[in-house]
Amino acid sequence: MLRCGQMMLAQALICRHLGRDWSWEKQKEQPKEYQRILQCFLDRKDCCYSIHQMAQMGVGEGKSIGEWFGPNTVAQVLKKLALFDEWNSLAVYVSMDNTVVIEDIKKMCRVLPLSADTAGDRPPDSLTASNQGDELIFLDPHTTQTFVDTEENGTVNDQTFHCLQSPQRMNILNLDPSVALGFFCKEEKDFDNWCSLVQKEILKENLRMFELVQKHPSHWPPFVPPAKPEVTTTGAEFIDSTEQLEEFDLEEDFEILSV
């Protein structure tokens, strides 16, 4: 599930920096933004969205290191890690009770200048990329790969970051309902268009996966936009920059994160 979360976020970053029409071509020189995106996901403790950082941040969500993460936990972890990601400047919103609140999202994004994919539970943990009728087309990250690090010239050998096998199919009725839907909106007009599309195509259905409302429900706790937590020195603190993380030897034990 951690890899699925990485795949979903990586797709959002590609849309953010390279556009939705960009596609990867094997053995072709890639733009520098692409290389920098890859570096966000290297299996190193000093990379913002690495397995190490996600597992450590999961401790704050009540998940021990090595414990299985569900879609909601992964989404909450990515929301917290995004607060420390200054380069991508993302605002990650995780809906409460399957209800997307337009007012809350615009409030959260006010300080910042569509679909990213679906991260799902069994069968198996995978990323849904498209569909054809009632058939879902998905990518399965459950493949053992060799560890990859940054080359001397600053690039990353990207072969293992892409699915070289053919996408798989399954009927939508076999989809586990425990899923996270991801949407990326680069500008406010993109979000407004997404809201219009949801209201037109989804909210008319009797059994819809989520709700979309304009105002924050009065019976909910007040919405507080997420903010970067203060760094403490208790020995179990969150390291708030990659520069600080680089000081640690990669073979040390985990540094537990807390927020």
TrEMBL record:
Domain Peptidase C54 catalytic: start-end pairs: 1-110, 122-196
Superkingdom of the organism of origin: Eukaryota
Transmembrane segments: none
Pfam families referenced in this protein's UniProt entry, alphabetically: ATG4_LIR, Peptidase_C54
InterPro entries: ATG4_LIR, Papain-like_cys_pep_sf, Peptidase_C54, Peptidase_C54_cat
Record's keyword terms, sorted: Autophagy, Cytoplasm, Hydrolase, Lipid metabolism, Protease, Protein transport, Thiol protease, Transport, Ubl conjugation pathway
SUPFAM superfamilies linked: Cysteine proteinases
Function in brief: Cysteine protease that plays a key role in autophagy by mediating both proteolytic activation and delipidation of ATG8 family proteins.
Full protein name: Cysteine protease
Annotated source species: Homo sapiens
Taxonomic lineage of the native organism: Eukaryota, Metazoa, Chordata, Craniata, Vertebrata
